């Protein structure tokens, strides 16, 4: 674990409390419109970006969306990127990196969601791992990658989703991750 706490090469990110694996799920194709002229039909479609999900760890050969690697390449300003990048190349968009967002919940409290953004841009948050936890900076404060349970949604099985939250926001066990290198 020589690179800000992350292994070299591809690895799984497994939540200790749930046993679920962090994964990227391909975006859905949507039809935006159709037009028919002179017997020819034109259809406009859009592919949504991939989504962050938690999944049961799948066997080798079936787990292509569960692999991650730590990217320390330099951005256009010469700074180390330090990104968590999904190992899957989502054609035609390329690779996607984990990105924490600031969101307000219904009670007006700050809680951060997690999404995947294309790696072809600057100004991403950096990530680091220490003591079984995964950290990022969000608006000047340190946030931890966290599994939130009993949430209805489409991100994960068993009603769980991933967020970035402050250290004392939830029980520590939901902020513990195991980084498992590919064999």
Helix content: under 10%
Strand content: over 45%
Structural class, by secondary structure, is mainly beta
**Sheet of most strands:** 7 strands, antiparallel
Please count the helical segments: 0
Shape assignment: globular
Top CATH class:
Mainly Beta
Uncertain runs with pLDDT below 50, 5 residues or more? 150-156
Question: How many angstroms separate the termini?
Answer: 15 Å
Query: Number of folding domains?
Result: 1
Number of beta strands = 15
* CATH architecture descriptor name: Trefoil
| CATH fold node name | Trefoil (Acidic Fibroblast Growth Factor, subunit A)
Mean pLDDT: 77
Can you describe what's shown?
The strands form five sheets. Strands 8, 9, 10, 11, 12, 13 and 14 form a seven-stranded antiparallel beta sheet that branches. Strands 1-15 form a two-stranded antiparallel sheet. Strand 11 and strand 12 form a beta hairpin. It has a single domain, classed as Trefoil (Trefoil (Acidic Fibroblast Growth Factor, subunit A)). By secondary structure, it is an all-beta fold.
């Amino acid at each position: 674990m020589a690179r800000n706490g992350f292994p070299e090469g591809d690895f799984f990110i497994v939540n200790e409390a749930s046993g679920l694996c962090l994964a990227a799920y391909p975006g859905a194709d949507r039809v935006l419109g159709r037009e028919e002229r002179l017997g020819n039909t034109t259809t406009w479609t859009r592919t949504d970006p991939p989504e962050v999900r938690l999944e049961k760890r799948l066997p080798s050969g079936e787990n292509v969306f569960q692999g991650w690697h730590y990217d320390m390449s330099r951005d256009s300003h010469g700074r180390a990127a330090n990104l968590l990048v999904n190992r899957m190349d989502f054609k035609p968009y390329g690779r996607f990196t984990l990105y924490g967002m600031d969101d307000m919940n219904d009670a007006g409290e700050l809680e951060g969601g997690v999404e995947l953004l294309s790696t072809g841009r600057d100004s991403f948050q950096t990530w680091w791992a220490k003591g079984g936890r995964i950290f990022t900076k969000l608006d000047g404060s340190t946030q931890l990658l966290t599994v939130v349970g009993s949430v209805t949604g489409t991100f994960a099985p068993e009603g769980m989703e991933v967020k970035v939250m402050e250290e004392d926001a939830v029980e520590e066990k939901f902020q513990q991750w195991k980084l498992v290198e590919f064999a």
